[in-house]
């Protein structure tokens, strides 16, 4: 009997510490998973499991001169994968200069139709852009800042935390819409190697993740103003990536935008986010969004040197975005957790789907508006949309803006309109290329 008691105590001594250690490790892992920087690195680690094998495969195919050996195999009936590999890795060897867009050719004033018809098209484009992106903005803030499942105001409910799943939802629907568009409407013959889309896709996924994640730490009006100021890093990235030069008025308006944003950020009340650490996290995430988005637009600008349409660009980028996000979600086990959240909360499922529909439709309205009226009209419409989005967010979610902060907002939007006016005057004097369509 004493021997049995001794063995029992020995077993408890050995088992309990290991059980407690396992529980502490699980709790520690959960705590780390609540840190945005840890989630960011987890996502990037998931993307590298796709990028690194792809890099070695592409390097190997180029090193063995697959284009020649693939032709030989194709002639003997063994190279059944040759067309796919050629399109993904090599593409066509020639570049065609500027964008040759069949389905979205630049407008011709001589064939523009009656004034009433043009006015109707303008109202249609403006309404489509405003409805799509205003709804998208309201839903974005609702999903990331409010809980689901609370039947009374006293209940806390359950918050959705995985920003990457929302990015995947947006991209899978945009991929479907752009794919159908490419099938239904004639497109130019594609020339760029498909793998080149992966660079813009990776930066696009990271910028979208930062955009959703930032709403956990900052207000929506702050995010909108920060996005309006992205012309500054876009210019810097343009000098670094594309070696572009800019006019004096572009530097002036960029400085005014910086001044306006600073006025808003330094004077806004912090009633919802009182922690300086939290505010700093939001600023860092927003900085990441602006940097990644600036790289995306400049890389896409270089890709347009190949023969492709805007919708083909949309399809290629979203194809790799879906590949990156679904791979990372499955590796983390977050994909099925997010689906389970959707089944528990039907309201969230509706919001997530509608969010994706608005994003995809908004992209098509962007292409159509620029094709019909040019980039200047499009920029004016989207600048107005940003101002309305801030007012709508303040009305629906109770964000407070000080008088100095409101003046800073006015400086930002006045600077944006000044950029449109200056660019229009330049176009009246000399022919310049149309600016690249950017994600908003």
From TrEMBL:
It comes from the Eukaryota. The chain crosses the membrane at residues 37-58, 119-139, 165-185, 248-267, 273-292, 313-336, 348-368, 375-398, 404-422. GO terms for molecular function: 3'-phosphoadenosine 5'-phosphosulfate transmembrane transporter activity. One of its GO terms (cellular component) is Golgi membrane. Keywords: Membrane, Signal, Transmembrane, Transmembrane helix, Transport. Pfam families: UAA. It is found in: Membrane. Residues 1-21 form the signal peptide. It is a multi-pass membrane protein. InterPro entries: EmrE-like, SCL35B1-4/HUT1. Belongs to the nucleotide-sugar transporter family. SLC35B subfamily. This is Adenosine 3'-phospho 5'-phosphosulfate transporter 1. It comes from Oncorhynchus mykiss (Rainbow trout).
